[in-house]
Write a structure and sequence with these properties.
alpha/beta, 8-stranded mixed sheet, 4-stranded antiparallel sheet
């Protein structure tokens, strides 16, 4: 085993232990997908989950990336790759399987698109949507070898294609978008961070059940705001309502009215 293969294996084991990952396909993907392939040349600006500022890696050895760290995509905007343990936990909670169709809204540079590609396999598919044209172009180039991934430069609040088994939103919004709910297949799952303007909030898992949906809070989160997220005090109050209500227990509803659950 090469030094880099050993670093990836340790990285997968670290995340598995920390998050109690149950999916063997997810663990295999973490141990095999080359994170450095999606991040350009080093040195890289990285930070731990609790750190306020970045530090520069000592050199350009990709082994520096095989730790539970955020890596800056655009440090000025505080736009980072996702924290590996956090998104591995979310992917595990969503119980993604072979042959599933997964939609990512905000795929960034495509690292987690590659992870999902390995999980769903050649008979599944990943639609990776990114509104930033430059990021989408870079992601498409990085994902060229992953034939079951389609990268789209577009708005994931307007069109996500055919219905999906799983939708993962990689940015903060004030409430679930009706399109995402309508696009879930029976027993489909949506993971969406609902956040305030300060980027703080909670990630919710919403499952289609029969004619309605069930929402459950998964974990507190701090994340970059989504394109089109409202910026009024009302948007913050809507996000706060979702966070409080879902933290008390499963929240059942049939639709949305002004961003809030309704039985209509």
């Amino acid at each position: 085993m090469s030094d880099l293969s050993a670093a990836r294996a340790r990285y997968a084991a670290l995340i598995a232990k920390r998050e109690r990952i149950t999916s063997p396909r997810l663990l295999a993907a973490l141990a095999s997908v080359p994170r450095e392939h999606f991040l350009g040349r080093g040195p890289w600006r990285i930070k731990s989950e609790a750190a306020r500022s970045y530090r520069l890696t000592p050199g350009s050895d990709p082994a520096h990336l095989y730790d539970n760290v955020l890596v800056a995509i655009d440090a000025r905007r505080k736009l980072d790759t996702g924290l590996p343990s956090l998104w591995a936990h979310f992917i595990d909670v969503l119980d993604i399987r072979e042959k599933d169709r997964v939609v990512q809204i905000g795929c960034g540079l495509g690292y987690f698109s590659a992870i999902l590609s390995e999980i769903v396999g050649p008979r599944g598919g990943v639609t990776a949507i990114e509104c930033d044209e430059r990021l989408a172009s870079r992601a498409a180039a990085c994902l060229r070898a992953y034939h079951n991934v389609e990268v789209i430069n577009g708005d994931g609040c307007r069109d996500i294609g055919e219905p999906a088994n799983v939708i993962i939103v990689h940015a903060g919004f004030s409430h679930p978008h009706p399109l995402w709910l309508a696009s879930l297949r029976p027993r489909g799952r949506l993971l969406v961070p609902l956040t305030q303007r300060d980027r703080e909030g909670a990630a919710l898992k919403i499952t289609r059940q029969g004619k309605g949906f069930v929402a459950e809070a998964v974990q507190q989160i701090r994340i970059f705001p989504g394109h089109g997220r409202g910026v009024t005090a009302l948007d913050d109050r809507v996000a706060d309502w979702w966070q409080r209500a879902s933290s008390l227990g499963p929240l059942r509803f049939r639709g949305l009215a002004q961003g809030l659950p309704s039985d209509g």
